[in-house]
Amino acid sequence: MEKVRLFFSSFSDKERWWIVIGVYAVVILGGGFIFLPAAFNSYVKGKEQLKRTVVEFYSFKKLLSEVVPDKSSRPISLEDVSKVLSDSGIKPFVVSIKPSGGNFEIKVDGTPADVFASALKTFKKEGFSVPYVNVDTVTGKIKALFTVSGEK
Question: Which ranges does the record mark as transmembrane (predicted)?
């Protein structure tokens, strides 16, 4: 340690300042080169995730515009709804089915997006309408409440 102090004190004041500034520059630039790539990678991953979320949202929005049908005249039965839920594969994710004035309110939780889309398409294919859909989560697993009515 004494040799370092003697070596450093052998320089003039101007030379000492240049050495200190050089050491700080190396430390700051070296730290920047270590942390910047990690920050940039997390930025790129976040941007890709946001892009996927937006694509899922618009595809889901398109799906909803396709399955919101015309109103029908006769209420449906619980057996009809249960059959369509079983056929579409969404039945394991159904939390509750409540009758509501000739319609049925169906609450699902943890449903994969493709299974939820399949269920909505199956309801439309079978001639039922889905006049109300409230989706809490679009990405990943879906938590939703929707109303089914219609005439088969």
Answer: 17-40
Residues 44-92 have pLDDT tens digits of 888 888 888 888 777 777 776 666 555 555 557 888 888 888 888 888 9
State if pTM tops 0.85. no
Chosen domain end from 16, 41, 61: 61
For residue 127, the enclosing domain spans 68-150
Instruction: Write the CATH number for 117.
Output: 3.30.70.60
Same domain, yes or no: 72 and 145: yes
According to DSSP, the residues that pair with 134 across neighbouring strands are: 145
CA dist., res. 89 & res. 47, Å (int): 33
Is 106's pLDDT higher than 80? yes
How high does pLDDT run on average in the chain? 79
Task: Report whether 97 contacts 104 (CB < 8 A).
Answer: yes
Name the domain boundary from 33, 61, 89: 61
CA pair distance 143, 8, nearest whole angstrom: 68
72: CB partners within 8 A, 6+ apart:
127, 128, 129, 149, 150, 151
